[in-house]
Amino acid sequence: MKELLSLLRDLQKVDSAIEKIQGRKAQLPGMLEALDEIFTASRTEMEEQKEKLQEATKKHREKEELLRRGQDSLKKAKARQFEVKTNKEYEAILKEVETLEIKSSQMEDEILEAMEEIDRVRGLVQNIERDFDQARLRYEGERKKRAEELALADGDLHATREKSQALREKVPPDILKRYDTIRNVSAGIAVIGVWKEVCQGCRMNLPPQLYNEIQREEEIRFCPNCNRILYWDDQSNGDNEKNHRGA
Ligand SMILES: [Zn+2]
Fold first, then answer.
1. Beta bridge pairs of residue 231
2. Candidates 3.90.1150.10, 1.20.1730.10, 1.10.287.1490, 3.30.200.20; correct CATH number of 14-168?
3. Given this model, what pLDDT does residue 229 score?
4. Ligand 1 centre and the CA of 22: distance in Å?
């Protein structure tokens, strides 16, 4: 019976390991998706800022063109000053020149502003591009790592399943059936330690008689509360605690 109990403890360890690998594997696609999202977001931000830069450059060109036309008009108006015949016409041209000069000066201010905006956005784009390059390297590295992890997990899973299968073949079918049934309803743990009359699966106090039987390891015993298969988890030596718990 001692051997069977030790076999069951090993099987529990291996089956728990399978669950752990499966859990890890299940997380990986989500992690990859999250990586993709972050990467796509930073690329979108970069593209948006590049578009802003293009817009600012276009606006600047348009304003330069408006300024050029305004200055042409101003030149023509000034030339006409000398051709007018009447005072009224002369005043009208003076007024026109004044308006055109104000407009030109405003346009020059706007051009300065546009150039400042271009400088600002260009600096931003340069920073973002540099960050993006680093983000891309990180992203590619991380993605590769996750893909390798997934392949590794597949390999581990295969090997661990084979181990489980080999152990299962040694356990009597009725006990194995009971083991799997308990696992299904007890969060994957069918074999659990008992120490100081307490089941470490459900924390229930066990009757002293049962505790004695478990210590003798003559028969497979079950927790009256959670139905788990019990073994004596001797923790009298402090070092054993870690090694045995959760086995
Ligand atoms: Zn229990």
1. 193
2. 1.10.287.1490
3. 97
4. 26
